[in-house]
């Protein structure tokens, strides 16, 4: 470099600053002679001038994967293996975890949050490949709270800007049904309860589709609906022997947890089937109820599309004029007189007038609406009377009483603790 | 003769943004044509720069213009543009002017309206009269007014500041009417015009904050107030409630207060004032500074069921529907920035608004989308 001096050996001015094993040297580029050397170590006085830099302010974070990130990545791989996911899922999940880790909010998060984040990454990967993994399953595996999981899941989806498709219902049905231990006889499962897997699967799928069409699935957790559908499918395949078995006993037999809402989903599904049965002439005369309709589920499912069309009328247009109609469409009730009937048959012989096809929450009798608050003419700048404020203040006597009561309470609570 | 502090201060501010205007000559002709042209150009340049945004904004240099000055100010571009017919169109319609920046006294004072209209009438009648008594001297005048009057070389009377109002040809009359009307009616309608349906979201909750600007002794407040609870181990604020309007307030020792539970902005303000009054009565020098509405929550019912799974498919970038976690669909609207919770029963909750109009606008935007999912 010009201006730096000359090489003592060859006299050239081409001196280059270079470092040799972190020791800076001034070297002649012609002959290679080392002109000057920097120091390899610092002296004590030099070190006195050095300042500590916290790890978070150094570049160490960017240069290597931190130990907690390594731990997290290992957890992701372990979780994928436990769930027996295809190998490609592992790489995607690991990539998501690394992507999340680049955000400072995640890096500084608590260990519990990082643990849950592992589950979130695996869940997102599964969802994107239509692999039916429920959040409940992951929370059980991670021993995490669903509330904590939900908050971190929403946060990470927003943070990474991901498009996460919904849970695939058909796949979930297949996986969940296969987990029922009813396909082989065992000491706990008598022979009459054993069922063919394919038949049960197909019937369950049809029942779940029916539930989806009749507004029983939207807005609800999918699993209890599938439990109820599986139970009905199982019962209907051999009603004579299985009608006596209850839902709870069924789940116990099958070694599956019974989700709490499953029984109300079951009732709703039965009500839908009953309505459909009303449209079949040979079933109408039988005057079916919740138990006897199970025997005919096979027939009902076979014609489910046309039956749903006949049994229900579009509830969307009806609701808007609902205020005038009496709430006649109770579950399982027949109100032949009210409403229109397209078939025109004489009363008594005609099928029930179509019920409203609405989600169950809209079919319940409307809550007495508290009257809309009268339009207040408050301007915000009115005068505030003294008396109104005084009513919120304690009189001096009350203050003294209150203080005395507080002191007494303090004394009472402190007495049990001996000095 | 002495004008109110308002106009003077505004004039000084105006002076800051406009080129200094020499006092107008007593007779016409003293200003040469070039000088008049220069002033016209200067004024029009400024107008042209603002024309890109909203042409009618051009005369409104100073947001704190009192009503009277505003009218004079606003009338000027018309008179200026009279001499430039091609520029006239840009100043035409003032009804689209956003006047929300005007202080409350200006927008609410109806009594100014008859004053102005009577002023216009007198001007119409007496063209050549120069009511100089009204507008004594150019230095106290709106400088823009003088600027425009100098740019017009037509009549002698125009150079008298007071007469600028008189030069209001009939085409401007409809504008002046709209001018006199415009400041009275707010631009964003308070009642939503729902052309799609008769459904109006009802406000359910308003959260507001206010600064009482004094340090408070929370123990003392909890002791002397009947409607207060204070548990420092649980939360570091006093929770106070009043019955009318039915609200709850969190009062912190720094003097900041959060008021929740009101059903309208005015009720929230009244409630906050009542809490401040209670604190005052307890012996603290409480004031009422920086009252601000932080959040508004509204709800309504579209009265038909909604296929949430379909909605999340078509509006994936805005919606989040996780039935395993929450039964409703969370729709994050970008404009206005509102979060909507949409349920299968057709009930919609709108939150995150700072203004009532944002809630109405968000509902107007979502209703056609929901109607698209009406048929199962």
From TrEMBL, chain B:
<dbReference type="GO" id="GO:0006352">
    <property type="term" value="P:DNA-templated transcription initiation"/>
</dbReference>
<dbReference type="Pfam" id="PF00352">
    <property type="entry name" value="TBP"/>
</dbReference>
<dbReference type="InterPro" id="IPR030491">
    <property type="entry name" value="TBP_CS"/>
</dbReference>
<dbReference type="InterPro" id="IPR012295">
    <property type="entry name" value="TBP_dom_sf"/>
</dbReference>
<keyword id="KW-0804">Transcription</keyword>
<keyword id="KW-0539">Nucleus</keyword>
<dbReference type="GO" id="GO:0005737">
    <property type="term" value="C:cytoplasm"/>
</dbReference>
<keyword id="KW-0238">DNA-binding</keyword>
<feature type="compositionally biased region" description="Low complexity">
    <location>
        <begin position="127"/>
        <end position="160"/>
    </location>
</feature>
<feature type="region of interest" description="Disordered">
    <location>
        <begin position="103"/>
        <end position="186"/>
    </location>
</feature>
<dbReference type="GO" id="GO:0005634">
    <property type="term" value="C:nucleus"/>
</dbReference>
<dbReference type="InterPro" id="IPR033710">
    <property type="entry name" value="TBP_eukaryotic"/>
</dbReference>
<comment type="similarity">
    <text>Belongs to the TBP family.</text>
</comment>
<dbReference type="GO" id="GO:0016251">
    <property type="term" value="F:RNA polymerase II general transcription initiation factor activity"/>
</dbReference>
<dbReference type="InterPro" id="IPR000814">
    <property type="entry name" value="TBP"/>
</dbReference>
<protein>
    <submittedName>
        <fullName>TATA-box binding protein like 2</fullName>
    </submittedName>
</protein>
<dbReference type="GO" id="GO:0003677">
    <property type="term" value="F:DNA binding"/>
</dbReference>
<feature type="compositionally biased region" description="Basic and acidic residues">
    <location>
        <begin position="108"/>
        <end position="123"/>
    </location>
</feature>
